[in-house]
C-alpha cells in the first residue's frame, strides 16, 4: 500500500488550499475559488505521467471503468471479454452497463491470455476489457493484434497498473481508454477516486459529460450548459483530487523504491528452484507493486502460505482463497445475485456462469502468491524479512 505509507505535509498543503476557499466542487465558482483547481491539476499530472492526451477524473476506479464502457459505446447485450482473475469491480461495471461478461482464461502473466481471448470470441463480442493485474502488463501486443483482427474495442482496466509500462508505453494508453483507481490500496491514493485516459477527443468528451449528468462544461454558467447525452454523477470532489495531486508527485519515488525492495525479495526466492515467477514480457516496465510467484503445486503453495503465516511474514495474498479477486469465490457473480433486474438476467447468457470452469486459470491461481511490496521498509525490516523468508522456505523445501 505504498501511497498510504507516504502521507505528509504535501497532501495536507493541497487539501488546505481547497479548505481555504471552501470550494469543494470541481466546476465553476471561478471568483470564489481563487485559482484553485485541484481536479484539473490532478488530471494534468496523470496525463503528463502517462503520456495520454486527455485525462478525466471521476469518483472511483469502478466509476472509471463504467465511464470508459459508456464513453466507448458499450451497453445493452454487448459481449465483453474479461478475466476471471481481477478485482470484482471489472465484472460489476460490465453488468451494470447492461453488457454481458464473457470470461476467458489467463496465463502465467496472470492476465488474460491471447489463446483464452481467441477461444472466447463469438459473433456478439464487442470488446476486450483487459486487466493488468498486480502492477504489470501481460502479452499486450498479441492481444491488441487479436482485437484488430476481429474488430473489437480494446479497453484497459489499469486500476492496478498505474506506472507499469511495456516497451516504454504506459499501461492505460494502449487501448481506446484506460482506467486507473486511486482507492486506499493502490500505488497512489486519493481516498476514493479514479481517472480515465484516452487520446481520442470525442471519447474524452463522452467521459466528461457522462460522469456529470451530461453537462458539456462549456462556459461558466452551469445552469446554462448544453447536455449532449444522459449521464450520472461520477464526479470527483476537490478534496480527493487535492490528495491525488500530491500523491502523483511521489509516484516516481514510489516506483524506484518498490523496484529495489522487490529485487531483494526476489533474490531470496530465486534460491529455491521449485519457485517460479509471474511472466512479465517487459520486466523493465514492472511497477513492482507486488512480487507474484508460483509454487510447484497447489498443495505445496498452501504449505508456503502456512509457513509464511507461522513465521510472521505479512502482506502476502493467496488469491485462490481470497473472496474478491478470483471467480472461484464469486458466488454473487456466478449466481448473478442482484437487487434489481439487469440485461444479463434477461438475455441469453453467453456462458453458464454458475458452472463454467477455468482449468488453466485454476492451475495458475491455485499456485500463485503475491507479496505486496512496501516503500517504507527500513534496512532492518528488510533484513528481518529476508531471514524469515529463508526460514519459512527452508521448512517447506
Ligand atoms: C481497485 C480496482 C478497481 C476499482 O477501483 P475502486 O477505486 O476501488 O473503485 C477496478 N478494477 C481493478 C482491477 C481494481 O484493482
- Proportion of residues in helical segments: 25-40%
CATH class of the largest domain: Alpha Beta
Number of strands: 13
For CATH, the homologous superfamily of the largest domain is named as: Type I PLP-dependent aspartate aminotransferase-like (Major domain)
Q: Spatial order of the strands in the main sheet? A: 1-9-8-5-4-2-3
The radius of gyration over CA amounts to: 21 Å
Q: What is the fold-level CATH name, i.e. the topology of the largest domain?
A: Aspartate Aminotransferase, domain 2
- The overall number of domains is 2
Distinct ligands, ions and cofactors found in the model: pyridoxal-5'-phosphate
Estimated share of beta-strand residues: 5-15%
Any low-confidence stretches, pLDDT <50, length ≥5? Answer: none
User: Averaging pLDDT over every residue, what do you get?
Assistant: 97
Distance between the termini: 30 Å
What oligomeric arrangement do these chains adopt? single chain
Structural class: alpha/beta
Task: Summarize the model shown.
With 397 residues, the chain is α/β, with parallel strands linked by helices. The chain has two domains: 248 residues, Aspartate Aminotransferase, domain 2; 145 residues, Aspartate Aminotransferase, domain 1 (Alpha-Beta Complex), CATH 3.90.1150.
Explain what this protein looks like in three dimensions.
With 397 residues, the chain is of the alpha/beta class. The protein has 15 helices and 13 strands. The protein has helices at 2-5, 9-21, 38-50, 61-71, 89-96, 114-120, 140-149, 201-210, 238-248, 251-269, 298-310, 331-334, 343-346, 359-365, 379-396, and strands spanning 54-58, 79-82, 100-103, 125-131, 153-157, 165-166, 169-170, 177-181, 194-198, 276-277, 290-294, 316-317, 368-372. Helix 10 packs parallel to helix 15 and helix 11 (298-310) packs across helix 15 (379-396).
